[in-house]
Amino acid sequence: MSDTILEAQGLTKEFRGFLAVKDVNLKIRRGSIHGLIGPNGAGKTTCFNLLTKFLIPTRGRITYDGRDITSMKPAEVARLGLVRSFQISAVFPHLTVLENVKLALQRERGGSYDFWRSADVLNKYDDRARELLADVALTEWEETQAGQLPYGRKRALEIATTLALDPVMMLLDEPTAGMTHEDVDRIVALVKRVSKGRTVLLVEHNLKVVEGLCDEITVLARGEVLAQGDYAAVSRNPEVQAAYLGTDPNFQGDAAHA
């Protein structure tokens, strides 16, 4: 089994003559938490969407677990164990927290989703759904409509529904965006906990989150890889300091400009 689980080679995406991502080479180590960061307009979201197959590359190659997935559709790579979350909330607001997780667990039924049918059909998912809610500290919220959850708890629910798909690799799109400090700490602890035995790639603006979570970091600027390494290495890189946070030599500052 290769140490690399996800790899991009020469990944490029052009939009009407504009190169949003240019010749990106990226390797994600199996079992690691890998951060993808960069200033506004760096190409992070485009790169993330290419890796998860929500965009088709203009050129380049993507392999997952040794398999070429360049031309696959999002649902196809999800069935292989490559599962993503979204920056915008993706829960069903009028279903309860428990029902949201049970809906995700129904993947084993193929295309059949049965919340409007007999509740007996779904009883077998109750125990596993409650286990997942316990994993993300949402047990006391299980009968709450998802749309009524505080923002940080809603992001925890999204992680629970992602876990319900039994991912080998999780791709998280800005999991702490818009959160209070308390919620950020909770999500960081949650990601650490659920990453056991999995690989995680996350796009993240909060540098403290990246520093505390990630084994390795890739910095993008103007659609290209500017630097790669652990936090200590990239934080000392003069090009990263200039591109990411101006002239700040300590690699600290306003995380909103990530």
Q: What would you say this structure looks like, in words?
A:
The protein has 258 residues and is of the alpha/beta class. The chain has two domains: 4-91 and 168-257, P-loop containing nucleotide triphosphate hydrolases (Rossmann fold, 3-Layer(aba) Sandwich), CATH 3.40.50.300; 92-148, no CATH class. It is built from nine helices and ten strands. It has helices at residues 44-51, 74-79, 97-105, 126-135, 151-164, 181-194, 207-213, 231-235, 238-245; strands spanning 4-15, 18-29, 33-37, 59-64, 67-68, 82-84, 169-173, 199-203, 216-221, 224-229. Strands 6-7-8-3-9-10 form a six-stranded mixed sheet, sandwiched between helices. A four-stranded antiparallel sheet has the order 2-1-4-5, covered by helices on one side. Strand 7 (169-173), helix 6 (181-194) and strand 8 (199-203) form a beta-alpha-beta unit. The protein is globular. The relative contact order is 0.17.
